[in-house]
Write a structure and sequence with these properties.
- The complex is a heterodimer of chains A (531) and B (732).
- Chain A has 531 residues and is of the alpha/beta class.
- Chain A has helices at 9-19, 68-77, 88-101, 117-123, 133-137, 139-147, 184-190, 198-210, 267-282, 294-303, 323-326, 358-368, 371-379, 424-430, 435-450, 459-463, 468-495, 499-507, 514-526, and strands at 47-55, 79-87, 107-109, 165-170, 179-183, 222-224, 252-254, 260-262, 306-311, 327-330, 346-351, 391-393, 400-402, 421-422, 431-432.
- In chain A, a hairpin with a 5-residue loop joins strand 7 (252-254) and strand 8.
- The longest helix of chain A has 28 residues, at 468-495.
- Chain A starts with 8 loop residues before the first helix and ends in a 5-residue tail after the last helix.
- Chain B is built from 26 helices and 17 strands.
- In chain B, helix 13 packs antiparallel against helix 14 and helix 20 packs across helix 22.
- The relative contact order of chain B is 0.05.
- The longest helix of chain B is centred in the first third of the chain and has 65 residues, at 13-77.
- In chain B, the strands form three sheets. Chain B has a seven-stranded antiparallel sheet.
- Chain B is α+β, with helices and mostly antiparallel strands and 732 residues long.
- Classes of the chains: A alpha/beta (531), B alpha+beta (732).
- Chain A binds chain B through residues 58, 60, 87, 287-293, 295-296, 299-300, 303, 409-410, 487, 490-491, 494, and chain B through 87-88, 91-92, 94-95, 98, 123, 125, 128-132, 135, 139-140, 173, 176-178, 180-182.
Chain lengths: 531, 732
């Protein structure tokens, strides 16, 4: 977990001044004679930089050395990159092993996994602070930051006021992650109105179950498709229907009064569970609710035959032959409260303390952010739309169009795992947002206008200025809470909720020092200037 | 052709050289063949065992992993609380089940996915999710060679035995979402015993078998796993048709050579406990390549051995043929100088000649041996025996004697000698040989035997032969000897005995032990000389003959020494020469007496002495004859009656009818001694004989010779002989 201070450099200084610490700006680094401060190649004589590269578990990539975009990058910069590719599920273990071994790569490129800069940077000083260095050696990166009204990289500052990472940001103009979708085709088939609240929604679900809306004569419709704690399709994304803006990672949230709340103690939490139990009893929710994982859920969504569900979006999700054909956005009533997503840069790349080519490394990362290189590494090579990959310049407006339809199974580009820094202004000037991005943006605007998105984002919890000790101490608590919640909500969904069982469930968190945990966050939030 | 046959039949050494070379070549080839055979066998065994080891390694590793599958199935069967449930009824158990399956996935290096299906439910589980049956079959797991119906039957139907889906491409979201690529998979479907209410499916990626079954390109191997006669998975650098392979495997033994696709392979197969069959095929060309490598090594070895051997044989052949050539040249066979037969013939003739020479030289060797033997020229007995063996004499016996034989130069001596040699050769118990001593006119024989009796019998034969062919044959023999170092001494003994020939009975063998060795000379008593002188002067032939006879008898009887005989001869000569001077005879009348000392025997001595005395008598006057009669009568009377103690001069005078004085004077004048002295001599000579030849007491001897008083006898004996009767007896 990383904790961020959302403030300007002056605020950071003031804050650190409160703690009695002085910001330690990065020292000057030595430039070798082989290094070219401008232009390409970056070095006259080729050097090799080792990159520890994280990919998502769902990614299937060829060897980066074989990727055309990578080869072009290496040729342009005259830097040979030695890749160590690691799956997200193995990331934590490999990262710890790497640091324990004492043999560090030069660069850690890991935008989609967590690299604790507090621990490895602030505490163990295994990461190089980049303050002043990015301004000097990453002009592209710096120019994009300066073009924005708000510094999108302010969340990258560690507790000691130093920044240890180069930011990763895919500007999408979104304010939430999951949306609700309902099968309009079935509604039409059954001549039903779009439900306006949970009750009517329940009725609709019952109609989906019994009305044979797909017309095949079999009661095979899945009224509600979801999982237990299965990421975007789990219970965390049903709770907002009941006014609980559940965080993707934690069971706490920030309410409209900037108070940190324990989700379990929200009335809506119990109400949600009771509702789900009712649905489960009536067979209105997928029978595999408890057992299926995200992959199975997505497979079912791809197949269609689902009445109600949550998802990131519909386009470019592989739902083309499934739910996308029949479903539309569902906007809940004002009692709902969805998690608000802050579009802040997250850590994308780090330099380790043993890096002997800091200027070269930063210039390499900056080179990866060059527009054409960045899009090639992200979507695939230019003009490869016939392969379902890549990008091209729009003939009309000269902006970049993505021709990547997500159909390729094994990618010859780094995909979203590459360095990508495209804040909103830059992105809008450079890139014709694809349909799926536009779709998502519209959904967010609708929800925002409907007032169903929380006022203060839970992301502030991630940006709360907690010390490394606090973070470490809270990990166990969070694990215990998560295990207890997940285990019990399964029981509640299956067996229902009684006062007794609920009281028993709630009281177990007393032993887990949940109050202290919440207070810790509250104290941190209180120090923040949250907007 | 004939010429060739002739050449082939000829005994040329070159033919033998060629034949020998051919044999050597044959030996080398046989050796090479044997080495090849051993090498072939060794390499073949190694080839077999290497394949067996390889397969065992594969089987062991894979069976270990298969046992893990059994263990998982067992654990699942023992975990009915989380494995046997219906999702609709007990959905929370799915969480536990997934956790359990996740544990298996986490630790397994064999299977990458595990699927579990409880037959009472419609859902199948992996470590992360439940999958509804239809969804699984249509989108979950799509196999290249297995239809959805087959998969459904395998997983969702109750089964009691393992099923294996051969390696095939796999797709579906179970693959794409949970594996990092779209691999080829082998699927092991195991029922959960003992209730068989559930089925487990283990998905094993191709990379596992890449590691397990792959081999080096140069091994030309194909290794596969089969189940129920179906190829499950295989890897190798050679391609094999599956149908052909399974057909061969069905009939093949554990290890044998097979032919597949026109290629020969060594097939090794064995069954694992899981029921899987493991098979490896390795091209026989690998084995043949190894053989060829070994063959080159063998050839090199053979060449290494053959070249110096050939050089050696060539050199040796050249030497041998050269020698044959030289030998033939020496044998004057230059027409065909390499012919071995000629050498053989030449050598045979040389051998024969040599044998002849050997045979001819044997007498020479034997003679040489005898000479060396009697001269003690052999260092020891062993050398003497060996020398004798070379002379074809067996002398390693206990006893030996040296025999000297003499003759008078008679021409029959050679014949006698030859007959004696034959007699010796014919005697199986005795061996020996004889040589001629020309200077001494003797034959020297050495006789060897383990039995004295055998030698004595042979000597009797030799004596007989000697007497048969020689008129005056004399044979003397040494005493018995065992020690070869005494051969010289034995010769001297025989020689001594030979020299005493006429003092003894020459008709018999003269034994050395019979020859007396005296410390002092026994001179013939004066009385005999007196009697001779008297008889010559008296012209009394009877007295003469009597006296000479008594002298000869005395010589023979008393075993006088040679010195005594020499002195006697000298005295006789002196006497006769003296009588020549006294009478009218001349020396030439008695010339024969000058060879008295060379007499071969007593008879010659008697004759020669008689002749000489008669010669003297014939020159003497007659008047002396009456006196000679009285003396002869007196001598005769005394010889007849000397034992009587009553005989004295008075009784003798009375007998002769003369006075005792006339008797004394005439007797003394005629004989040279008084008649009482003559009577004393008779008696004492007889006493000496009795002392030598009997065990009579001295007193008895005294009385036997006419002395009543033994003291008188003893006194007169001592005066006459020089020692007491007892001493005389002891000495003789």
């Amino acid at each position: 977990m990383k904790k961020r201070v959302l403030a300007t450099a002056l605020s950071a200084s003031m804050l650190l001044g409160c703690f009695g610490a002085v910001p330690a700006f990065a020292a000057e680094v030595e430039e070798s004679e082989n290094f070219n401060a401008e232009g390409y190649p970056i070095v006259d004589e080729q050097i090799t930089l080792k990159v520890m590269f994280a990919i998502r578990d769902v990614d299937s990539l060829i060897d980066p050395d074989e990727m055309p975009g990578v080869q072009a990058l290496e040729e342009k910069t005259n830097i040979d990159i030695e890749w160590e590719v690691i799956k997200g599920s193995d990331w934590d273990m490999k990262l710890n092993l790497m640091f324990a071994s004492g043999e560090y790569p030069d660069i850690i490129l890991a935008p989609n996994v967590n690299t604790d800069d507090e621990e490895f940077g602030v505490t163990q000083e295994l990461l190089i602070p980049l303050d002043g260095l990015t301004e000097k050696y990453m002009p592209i990166y710096t120019s994009r930051i300066e073009a924005e009204d708000d510094d999108p990289t302010s969340g990258l500052v560690a507790s000691n006021g130093l920044t240890y990472s180069v930011g990763y940001l895919v500007g999408q103009n979104i304010n939430t992650n999951q949306h609700f979708f309902i099968n309009q085709t079935w509604l039409d088939a059954l001549e039903l109105e779009t439900p306006t609240d949970v009750e009517s929604l329940t009725e609709v679900l019952r109609a989906f179950k019994t009305g044979d809306p797909n017309g095949n004569g079999e009661a095979d419709e899945i009224p509600l498709e979801m999982g237990l704690d299965t990421g975007f399709y789990g219970i965390r994304y049903m709770l907002p229907l009941f006014g609980v803006p559940c965080d993707p990672d934690k069971w706490i949230y920030i309410d409209d009064e900037k108070q940190v709340q324990f989700a379990v103690k929200n009335e809506g939490f119990r109400a949600c569970l009771e509702w789900l139990h009712t649905l489960y009893e009536e067979g209105l929710v997928d029978a595999e609710l408890i057992s299926q994982d995200i992959n199975t859920i997505e497979t079912k969504l791809k197949a269609g035959n689902v009445g109600f569900f949550t998802a990131w979006r519909l386009i470019a999700m592989g739902f083309d032959d499934g739910v996308m054909k029949d479903c539309v956005l569902y906007t809940p009533d004002e009692s709902a409260s969805l998690y608000r997503y802050l579009e802040m840069a997250k850590p994308g790349a780090f330099l380790t303390a043993t890096n002997e080519h800091v200027p070269e490394s930063l210039r390499l990362l900056d080179a990866m952010l060059e527009t054409e290189t960045m899009f090639s590494l992200y979507y695939g090579e230019q003009n490869t739309g016939d392969q379902g990959t890549g990008w091209e310049y729009n003939a009309e407006n000269g902006k970049i169009d993505s021709t990547n339809d997500g159909s390729v199974d094994v990618k010859n580009y780094l995909d979203c795992n590459t360095m990508f820094f495209a804040p909103g202004k830059y992105l809008s000037e450079t890139f014709n947002m694809p349909a799926q991005r536009i779709e998502k943006t519209e959904y967010c605007q609708i929800y925002d206008e409907a007032g169903v998105t929380q006022k203060y984002s839970n992301d502030y919890l991630d940006l709360a200025p907690l010390t490394s000790e606090q973070i470490q101490g809270s990990v166990l608590t969070e694990t215990d809470i998560n295990n207890a919640v997940v285990e019990n909500i399964a029981n509640f969904v299956i067996n229902g909720v009684t006062d007794e069982s609920w009281e028993s469930f709630v009281s177990m968190f007393d032993d887990m020092k949940v109050d202290e945990y919440i207070k810790m966050y509250q104290d941190a939030i209180d120090t923040m200037d949250i907007e | 052709m004939k010429e060739i046959i002739k050449r082939l039949r000829s005994q040329s050494v070159l033919r033998y050289v060629i034949a020998f070379s051919g044999i050597v070549v044959l030996i080398v080839l046989v050796m090479g063949g044997y080495l090849y055979y051993v090498n072939h066998r060794s390499i073949y065994q190694t080839f077999l065992s290497a394949n067996t080891s390889w397969l065992e390694s594969v089987e062991k590793s894979h069976e270990n992993d298969m046992r893990i599958l059994d263990d998982v199935a067992t654990q699942i069967s023992l975990s009915a609380d989380i494995a046997e449930f219906v999702l609709a009824d007990q959905p929370q158990k799915s969480i536990k089940l997934k956790e359990r399956l996740h544990q298996y996935i986490t630790v397994s290096q064999f299977f990458t996915q595990i699927l579990y299906q409880y037959h009472e439910d419609d859902y199948l589980y992996n470590h992360s999710t439940s999958i509804e049956r239809d969804l699984f079959l249509t989108k979950g797991l799509l196999l290249e060679k297995t239809t959805a119906d087959q998969l459904s039957e395998l997983l969702f139907e109750k089964r009691t035995s393992m099923a294996v889906l051969p390696e095939q491409k796999a797709d579906g979201y179970v693959i794409s979402f949970y594996l990092d690529s779209r691999p080829r998979l082998v699927t092991y479907v195991k029922p959960v015993a003992p209730r068989y209410m559930g089925t487990l499916a283990f998905l094993v990626k191709d990379t596992y078998y890449d590691d397990l079954l792959s081999s080096q390109q140069e091994e030309k191997r194909y290794t596969c796993i089969l189940y129920e006669n179906q190829l499950i998975v295989g890897r190798g650098s050679v391609s094999v048709e599956e149908t052909e392979l399974t057909g061969v495997l069905a009939e093949a033994e554990e290890q044998q050579e097979v032919k597949l696709g026109g290629e020969h392979y060594l097939l090794t197969q064995q069954k694992g406990d899981s029921g899987l069959w493991y098979c490896t095929l390795q091209s026989m060309s690998v084995f043949h390549d190894q053989i060829m490598s070994g063959l080159w090594a063998i050839l090199f070895l053979l060449v290494l051995c053959s070249v110096p051997a050939a050089v050696f044989i060539a050199g040796l052949s050249r030497k041998v043929s050269g020698k044959v050539h030289d030998i033939n040249v020496l044998l004057n066979e230059e027409n065909d100088p390499y012919n071995v037969d000629q050498i053989e013939q030449g050598i045979r003739s040389l051998v024969e000649i040599n044998r002849e020479k050997e045979r001819a030289s044997i007498p020479l060797h034997r003679t040489r041996f005898i000479r060396f033997f009697v001269r003690n020229e052999f260092a020891d007995r062993t050398e003497a025996v060996q020398a004798a063996q070379k002379a074809q004499l067996q002398v390693d016996c206990r006893w030996y004697v040296i025999v000297l034989m003499g003759d008078g130069g008679n021409s029959n001596e050679s014949k006698a000698h030859d007959r004696m040699l034959k007699a010796i050769a014919a005697d199986p118990r005795v061996d020996g040989y004889g040589m001629r001593l020309l200077s001494k006119n003797q034959s020297l024989f050495a006789l060897f035997s383990d039995e004295k009796e055998a030698i004595e019998e042979l000597m009797a034969v030799l004596l007989h032969l000697g007497h048969e062919f020689c008129e005056n044959f004399i044979m003397s023999v040494s005493s018995w000897h065992e020690d070869f170092s005494e051969a010289s001494k034995a010769y001297l003994e025989a020689d001594t005995a030979f020299d005493n020939r006429f003092l003894m009975d020459n008709s018999q063998i003269l034994h050395f032990q019979d020859v007396a060795t005296r410390d002092r000379v026994e001179v013939l008593p004066e009385i005999y000389q007196q009697r001779l002188k008297h008889a010559i002067r008296a012209g009394n032939e009877e007295a003469l003959e009597l006296t000479i006879t008594e002298i000869c008898d005395k010589l023979k009887r008393e075993n006088q020494s040679l010195l005594t005989f020499r002195i006697l001869c000298n005295d006789m000569l002196h006497l006769l020469v003296g009588e020549v001077n006294e009478g009218q005879a001349a020396l030439q009348d008695i010339s024969s007496v000058f060879v008295l000392s060379q007499c071969q025997n007593i008879h010659d001595f008697h004759d020669i002495l008689s002749e000489g005395c008669r010669a003297l008598m014939s020159k003497r006057p007659v008047s002396e004859s009456k006196k000679s009669d009285m003396i002869a009568s007196a001598v005769a009377y005394m010889k007849e009656n000397f034992q009587s103690p009553d005989l004295n001069m008075t009784s003798l005078a009375e007998y002769l009818e003369i006075s005792p004085v006339t008797l004394a004077v005439e007797f003394k004048n005629g004989v040279g001694m008084s008649p009482s002295d003559y009577l004393a001599v008779l008696r004492l000579e007889r006493a000496k004989q009795l002392l030598r030849e009997t065990t009579m007491l001295v007193k008895e001897v005294s009385q036997a010779v006419g002395y009543e008083d033994d003291h008188v006898f003893m006194r007169r004996f001592k005066k006459y002989v020089g020692m007491t009767p007892g001493q005389y007896r002891n000495l003789n």
